[in-house]
Amino acid sequence: MPYRVTAYAPGSVGNVGPGLDILGLAVSGAGDEVTLEWRDDAAIVIADAGHPELPSDPSQHTAAIAAAAVLRRARVARGVTLWARKGLPLSGGQGGSAASAVAGALAADQLAQTNLGAAMLLECALEAESTVSGRHADNVAPSLLGGLILVRSTAPIDVIRLPVPAALRVVLVHPDQQLRTRDARDVLPRAVSRDLALAQAANIAAMVAGACLDDLALLGRGLDDQIAEPARVHLLPGFLEAKAAAREAGALGCSISGAGPTVFALVDSVAGGELVAERMLAAYAKAGVRAVARVAAVDFEGATVR
Amino acid sequence: MPYRVTAYAPGSVGNVGPGLDILGLAVSGAGDEVTLEWRDDAAIVIADAGHPELPSDPSQHTAAIAAAAVLRRARVARGVTLWARKGLPLSGGQGGSAASAVAGALAADQLAQTNLGAAMLLECALEAESTVSGRHADNVAPSLLGGLILVRSTAPIDVIRLPVPAALRVVLVHPDQQLRTRDARDVLPRAVSRDLALAQAANIAAMVAGACLDDLALLGRGLDDQIAEPARVHLLPGFLEAKAAAREAGALGCSISGAGPTVFALVDSVAGGELVAERMLAAYAKAGVRAVARVAAVDFEGATVR
Q1: A160 touches chain B (CB under 8 A)
Q2: Which one of A241, B11, B23, B62 is CB 3.0 to 4.6 Å from A283, fit for a cystine?
Q3: What pLDDT digit, counting tens, does each position of B112-158 carry?
Q4: Inter-chain contact A197–B227, Cβ cutoff 8 Å?
């Protein structure tokens, strides 16, 4: 049994367009890292929460909650000390809480050599994610498994890894703003008209078909969120302008990443992505919002032990 | 220019499970046939409506409405005489009104040699379908194009032909009952909770992924309609018992075909289909409902000129 394990989990775009709570995409280039070390007592102790604003109470930190859930399932009575290294912004809409949870779960699984398997690790990460943003798996699942994930159900867990068109790239634009997931969820409508529900379902189904059939244009046509996006626009100054700029610069589509404030655009090349990023930043600047952008590939590996 | 044309269009399962209005499957073995012949005047005249209960008023018969829509778009001033031959039951939930519309549109297109193309023919058939059951394309699109069709949008028309797993077969069970599409639509909820909308979207997306990835088990797990089916159960005596029997006999899934009363089950072999059909008929019989069943292949050809 190892003495210390470090695991990494990538960030992700949750709520991919119309896929509110059900479609998530792992994104390379930034993620969270969690190190666990056995203790002599039974406590879970956070030595480094990863960020001054993150709780050092292990019952409130997603990495610690997920690690504890794994150790409990593994019937391990021994405690661990935890160090988190945040590569993802807090309340950024890039799946940071999920990545920490996944890295915590995977590190604990490796430390205790329990091999719980993907479904159980997902369950443990979901337990953690639920404490900060509700029981939805569209960030934890891609963060663990990599790629583009359809979450058919969370009870029982049923996630499907979809093919990803090779040319697909993701532009992430992060305005200088924090938006708590809970606040962004509170504005969601509790009910929708049947017509709206069907239109949204048709669009998510089209995105799935576009991914499976390697049809980027179809993926783009389906990227049209009529439920969450309209409800959140007022929380996100500059978003509509940036979205218009993205479409104009040739993006396949553009929407809010997770609960925001990060915005993503899907593009079909790195060069196209750079143009889209530039135009989106210009639109944010014009709206008086500072922002940073990057063009990323899809992360196909998911969480790994380092 | 030909003097007379006959076109055939297959029946279809609309509302495939959670795919209310957006997923349809063309089914082989039964369909409607429409013959058109030029007239010397400008009238559209129905010589044979195809069934005593079908209207002989050309503004009320889907085949005639669709044919007239094609001729109008083709700027043809000449009229036609129309003979319909119904292979599909009336108000059966097997896409009969759509098949007649599609056959009428295709026959007119061939008669006038206009080659309007699939999108325009769909639009003409939709115009006809709208008069009897609302503007939805989940029957007309598979009836015209064949196969499994995702309707992303009807305005503008955007339909996607999905791959179909080779082993897929369809059991159609038709209880001795008529159910007008309009009546079956009136019971649908006008609004649904966000959670329900998302669950339905996840299931339809899973069905699409299952079809694209040749994963029949996934296709079956997604076949779970939580919006239309619960609302219509009370209109369909024996359905719940037949569905339970289908699942028990190994069907991938079972739901209402279109607006009913026909019920369909998806299976992974002809032999499996025969067992499922037998058990479903027994369940209907036990519930005091007479019914007939057949096991069909997917119709990949769609509408054809004969």
Answers
A1: yes
A2: A241
A3: 999 999 999 999 999 999 998 888 999 999 999 999 999 999 999 99
A4: yes
Each residue of A145-168: pLDDT tens digit? 999 999 999 999 999 999 999 999
Nearest to B152 among A153, A193, A203 (CB): A203
Q: Which two tokens stand for residue B187?
A: 């019971």
CB B132 within 8 A of CB B139: no
A163 with B213: Cβ contact below 8 A: yes
Provide the 3-class DSSP secondary structure of residue B226: coil
Cβ of B198 within 8 Å of Cβ of A20? The answer is yes
The Cα–Cα gap between A129 and A146 comes to 17
Q: What phi and psi values does residue B168 have, to the nearest 5 degrees?
A: -65, 130
Q: How confident is the model at residue A187 (pLDDT cuts 50, 70, 90)?
A: very high
**What's the N-to-C CA distance of chain A in angstroms?**
16
- Judged by CB atoms closer than 8 Å, whether chains meet at A205 and B201 is answered as yes
Q: What is the pLDDT of residue B123?
A: 97
**C-alpha to C-alpha distance for B103 and B34, rounded to whole angstroms:** 6
Q: Do domains B4-163 and B169-297 have the same CATH topology?
A: no
Nearby residues of B189 by Cβ (< 8 Å), 6 or more positions away: A194, B227, B231
Chain A residues in contact with B193 (beta carbon < 8 A) = 190-191
B22 interface with A at CB cutoff 8 Å? yes
Which tokens in the block code for residue A162? Answer: 């979809």
Classify domain A169-297 by CATH architecture.
Answer: 2-Layer Sandwich (3.30)
The pLDDT value given to residue B185: 86
Residues A22, B162: C-beta atoms closer than 8 Å: no
The bridge status of strand B157-162 relative to strand B169-175 is unpaired
Q: How many Å apart are CA B162 and CA B206, to the nearest integer?
A: 13
Query: Using CA atoms, how far apart are residues A29 and A116, in angstroms rounded to an integer?
Result: 27
pTM: 0.95
CATH number of the A4-162 domain: 3.30.230.10
User: Which residues make Cβ contacts (< 8 Å) with residue B52, sequence separation at least 6?
Assistant: none
- Write out the E strands in A98-184: 148-154, 157-162, 169-175
Q: Supply φ then ψ for residue B192, to 5 degrees.
A: -135, 160
B149 in contact with A, Cβ within 8 Å: no
